[in-house]
Specification:
By secondary structure, the protein is of the alpha/beta class. The protein is built from 15 helices and eleven strands. It is globular and about 70 Å long. It starts with 5 loop residues before the first helix and ends in a 6-residue tail after the last helix.
Length: 318
Amino acid sequence: MLNCSKEELVNEFKIWFQDYLPFFLQAVSKEPIPAVSQYIHRSKPKYSLDQCTEDTGVFQPVLERWIRTINRKGQAILYGSPGTGKTYLAEKLAQHLIADSDGFSELVQFHPAYSYEDFIQGIRPQSQDEKLTYPLVPGRFLEFCKRAESYQDICVLIIDEINRANLAQVFGELMYLLEYRDREIPLAGGNRFRIPENVRIIGTMNTADRSIANIDHALRRRFAFIELRPNYDVLRPYHLKIGFAVEGLINILQQLNQAIADKNYEIGISFFLTDNLREDIEDIWRMEIEPYLEEYFFNHLEKVDQFRWDEIKNKLWI
């Protein structure tokens, strides 16, 4: 060390300082866990609403209203027809909520077999020392909340396809805690639990799978619902960079959604957010759009005929 240059000595000190500062904070802070956590979980880059608007095509005043609603209510569901960008928008909203902070976000996807034991807690058989044990194991949400307790800023859990699970069964006691965020209650399997104040939940819901009208009223009361419709304006700037004229495609999609005449089943624009749309569009239309239309118009297949690839390809202005 005596022969070190000034620069080498400074670097050595930086390394030492980074290694031992958490212990110093723990010794001198009245509340050491938040102080150490804030040091360890360094702030993430800013992700402004301007950037979010540019990425999603949603006007800033609308995004501001959505952010206020999520923070006020604590949980919200983005719902709409296929291809309206629900998951993408949920991720961008979460990115803004945790930007420039020590928070974090996670994503979990629900499915018909998803259970209370998976989400909250349950007994899981495990083999230990050649013996079968049945410990009580925390589920994804309990693990998420336990981790969020060590953070000071907002932490976001995204629940993708939230309506595919039996929500009343999966949520259990969480139904009460979603409404009364300041309360703590005992869980069915033991232990007491509360949702940390810094936790936000953003769900996504495909209305082609299950209409919002079929969601349990108790659950609907606990969530704010944000409707998404096909935002054709997103296609224009996205494809401007590759010189693909999308006005013909937008016109066809508008006609198609008028023919569908049900906002829960409209065709969204995310099907066409590909950098190689000129090469991909025929495959997308034949293998994704047409099968979807055949299922929707299964009793009136003649309505599909006017939107077959061979009928619309010359109207795309490719």
